[in-house]
Amino acid sequence: MEPILELKNINYAYHNLEGETKALTDISFSVFPGEFVSIVGPSGCGKSTLLSIICGLIEPEKGLIKLSGKYLRDSTTNIGYMLQHDHLFEWRTVYHNVLLGLEIQHMLSARSRGHAHELLELYGLKQFEHAKPSELSGGMRQRAALIRTLVLDPDILLLDEPFSALDYQTRLSVGNDIGQILRDAHKTAILVTHDLSEAVSLADRVIVLTARPAAIAKEIKVTFELEEDTPMCRRNAPEFKHYFNLIWKELNTNA
Question: Which of 45, 114, 117, 238 has CB atoms 3.0–4.6 Å from 41's, for a disulfide?
């Protein structure tokens, strides 16, 4: 199987009048279709910068990126980006918030509108499609933000700590729901998170970064022997503690 995403020898540094701050050093990895990859590392090491490079918001100083075998600038691979905050607009209903990306990309049609309705129903927000965001719980808002991203049918979904603003109980519930939604939809996803439990419960593979300037310290393949392989079931599995401790040790060795 060919990778949907390839990063080779990515380097990046921030520049200002006081000099240069290196953020990323020689980052290389691949992601395959349908794979869920978590990226963890010390705070401020450059995890979000890496996502910005992958989606083309900033250019690396060195290295190359390929999407579906083509260089980033030539690729038609569709990338979705889900941020820490839902950024729903209060003056728009949930349904019209979901349509926002379609409007911006001039993709609104009877078919895409119908698809938006289908996703709202599939993910439990059908009865709230005419509500305003303030009428939703935090978890429901994040689910609406995910639907807004999924309605564009992205080939790769980038998740930048999308559950960090939620309380712990809601975070567990929403993480479980969204993890299942992405697996059921066979979406390729890359999650940046500080939460090691979240990384292990959601991912097929965890990439551990060193302190800034970030380099890859280790890649850990995550497998569970479960009849029902869900994020919540993983947290209760005997393998969970092993992977958590392995990542914890790696982070502290490279902090």
Answer: 45
**Whole-prediction pTM value?**
0.89
Helix segments in 185-237, DSSP class H: 196-202, 231-235
What does the DSSP assignment read for 33-91?
TT-EEEEE-STTSSHHHHHHHHTTSS--SEEEEEETTEEGGG----EEEE-SS----TT
Q: What residue has token string 């960090």?
A: 164
CA dihedral (133, 162, 30, 21) positive or negative: positive
Beta carbons of 194 and 162 less than 8 angstroms apart:
no
- 158-207 per-position pLDDT tens digit: 998 887 777 788 788 878 888 888 888 888 999 999 999 999 999 999 99
**DSSP letters of 136-203?**
S-HHHHHHHHHHHHHTT--SEEEEESTTTTS-HHHHHHHHHHHHHHHHHTT-EEEEE-S-HHHHHHH-
Q: Is the dihedral of CA 241, 177, 6, 193 positive or negative?
A: negative
Q: Residue 84 corresponds to which tokens in the numbers above?
A: 């820490």
Angle ∠(129,132,133) on CA atoms, nearest 5:
100
Given the structure tokens 């390929």, which residue do they identify?
A: 66
Neighbours of 182 (CB within 10 A): 20
